[in-house]
Specification:
The chain is mostly helical. The chain contains 6 helices and no strands. It has one domain.
């Protein structure tokens, strides 16, 4: 039984032997941290500017809608183009939209504009997850 437990532990650590997997994991951690900070900031911005839970809900819906509408297209993009470039382009485009969102907040812009930018940001995110999942398979050997 001890051998089985040791084997499972090695199995979970095995992908981290690959430098590219470690870099991908670190980049993903940074990207996900930014995503969650953005999510909270967006909802606070909308609530602060409107005082309406309905507008906050609308922001949530608009943020998730591109995944429903374009999810399969994101997979096609991730398969057709180099995965690393898809991921980098997605993060760069999202960063630009988030900067615009920050400007909207600084200029006391409308909640509707902030929500529209959130939808655009999510649209740029659609291809990221499939590219990441496919990229892991290319980086890590099957036995790992």
């Amino acid at each position: 039984m001890a051998d089985a437990i040791a084997s499972d532990r090695r199995g979970m650590r095995a992908p981290f032997r690959h430098r590219d997997f470690r870099l991908l994991t670190a980049g993903l951690a940074i990207s996900q941290t930014g995503d969650w900070l953005y999510n909270v900031a967006l909802l606070v911005l909308v609530l602060r500017s409107t005082g309406s839970a309905t507008w906050v809900a609308a922001a949530g819906v608009v943020r998730l809608l591109p995944y429903v509408l374009f999810g399969t297209l994101g997979g096609v993009v991730a398969d057709r183009y180099p995965r690393k470039r898809v991921m980098i382009a997605s993060d760069l485009l999202r960063s630009g939209v988030m900067l615009l969102l920050g400007l909207v907040d600084l200029m006391s812009g409308s909640a509707a504009l902030a929500i529209a930018l959130a939808g655009l940001c999510s649209t740029f995110s659609v291809a990221y997850a499939p590219a990441e999942a496919a990229g892991v398979q290319l980086i890590v050997e099957e036995e790992d």
